[in-house]
TrEMBL record:
One GO CC term, this protein: plasma membrane
Entry's localization field: Membrane
Record PANTHER family: SODIUM_GLUCOSE COTRANSPORTER 4, SOLUTE CARRIER FAMILY 5
GO molecular function, one term: D-glucose:sodium symporter activity
Homology family: Belongs to the sodium:solute symporter (SSF) (TC 2.A.21) family.
Membrane-traversing stretches: 33-52, 73-100, 120-153, 174-193, 199-220, 227-247, 253-271, 300-320, 326-348
Topology term for the membrane: Multi-pass membrane protein
Keywords: Membrane, Transmembrane, Transmembrane helix
Chief localisation class: membrane
Protein name: Uncharacterized protein
Length: 372
């Protein structure tokens, strides 16, 4: 802000919101990389996969000592996630206003901004902070990959007669090898045509939405057989590979993932209709931890939903991107969003009073069987 305002924080803040108001509009942007329609289709599927099924993320929630603490952690993570526009997009807008078109590589924008605004002694400190953040994510991915390899590859194929310690040891060896290989591959990503972030998103499409599609069908159906999931995975990954590597259509990869998601779900439903499971699938419950839910989960969730509504209101022509900026109409829309969110909280709390939680009922049923 001081750099924008030439030494004045107030002038810098005013300049941020008035110099390029169009940069604050998150709605209706038909950008080539992420069209707004794709954000409401394929991008939602990517986020469902990442935040709901990706091992490197959900292992943190699965490690909670009980359901209550797990729900608290998920809500806290959701709260910080909604702040992403502030900690990611705002510095990007500041960089654009300070640096303009001096750089064509978006991956270099943040480092140039840091070098411009920070005193020289703090640049090294900031680099250390960034390096620590990168290592944290890298360690999480390596750890989750080693876990998946040990439990889903090594143990079923080579784990007969092996102790848990041996299985864990071989998982660690695989993680170490993966880390070494990734160190040699990582420098090549600098040649990605649309930058690092976009490259990662496109490549992730080979596994994120295909895996989520199978898990999604597992949640909503109980009769679809395993062969349907295998056929769906082969079709999804194969078709996506042809689109990305051979045909290379102008359509956003997010639209492609959304279309393939619908087709794959339809394929699994058809196969499930033609050759269903003999018995409906029942999720096993092991009673390893307490599953008493957090009593304030709906209030926390309602507040986070309000934050999402507020973000789209503020970062649109109703808010900071409008001709007059924040107005009384903006405040009215925020009030409507708050009412809708609060109504949702009341609905779910009332529903819980009428009907018992399915998970709790399942556990009680398991306990009743054990007692009998």
């Amino acid at each position: 802000m001081l750099a924008l305002g030439h030494g004045s924080f107030g002038e810098g803040l005013s300049h941020l919101f008035t110099a390029t108001p169009e940069k604050f509009n998150a709605i209706g942007n038909n950008h080539d990389v992420v069209p707004f329609g794709a954000a409401l289709t394929g991008l939602i599927l990517v986020n469902f996969y990442y935040w709901g099924t990706d091992q490197s993320i959900i292992q943190r929630a699965l490690a909670a000592k009980n359901l209550k603490e797990g729900q608290k952690g998920v809500m806290l993570a959701g709260f910080f996630k909604v702040l992403t526009p502030i900690v990611v997009c705002i510095p990007g807008i500041i960089a654009f206003q300070l640096l303009g078109s001096k750089t064509t590589n978006p991956d270099l924008m943040y480092t140039q901004l840091v070098n411009k605004v920070l005193p020289a002694p703090l640049v090294g400190f900031f680099a250390a902070v960034m390096f620590g953040s990168v290592l944290s994510v890298f360690n999480g991915v390596i750890n989750s990959t080693a876990t998946l390899f040990a439990l889903n590859v090594y143990e079923p194929l080579f784990g007969k007669g092996k102790t848990d310690q041996e299985i864990v040891r071989n998982g660690k060896r695989f993680g170490f090898l993966l880390g070494i290989v990734s160190m040699f591959i990582a420098p090549l990503i600098m040649y990605a045509p649309d930058g690092l972030f976009q490259y990662v998103q496109v490549v992730s499409g080979f596994f994120n939405v295909p895996i989520f599609t199978v898990i999604f069908m597992g949640y909503v159906t109980k009769r679809v057989p395993a062969i349907a999931a295998k056929i769906s995975l082969v079709f999804f990954v194969g078709t996506y590979a042809v689109l990305q590597l051979i045909i290379k259509p102008e359509m956003s990869f997010l639209y492609q993932e959304a279309i393939l998601f619908v087709i794959s779900c339809a394929m699994m439903l058809v196969i499930g209709k033609m050759k269903p499971r003999e018995t409906p699938y029942v999720m096993p419950i092991n009673n390893l931890v307490e599953i008493e839910p957090w009593e304030h989960r709906y209030e926390a969730g309602g507040f986070i939903i309000f934050m999402v509504f507020a973000a789209y209101i503020l970062f649109s022509k109703l808010g900071f991107a409008g001709a007059n900026g924040f107005t009384a109409m903006t405040a009215l829309w925020l009030l409507i969003a708050a009412v809708v969110s609060f109504a949702g909280v009341l609905y779910f709390k009332k529903r819980d009073k009428v009907a018992e939680s399915p998970v709790t009922a399942a556990v009680k049923g398991t306990q009743d069987v054990r007692v009998k």
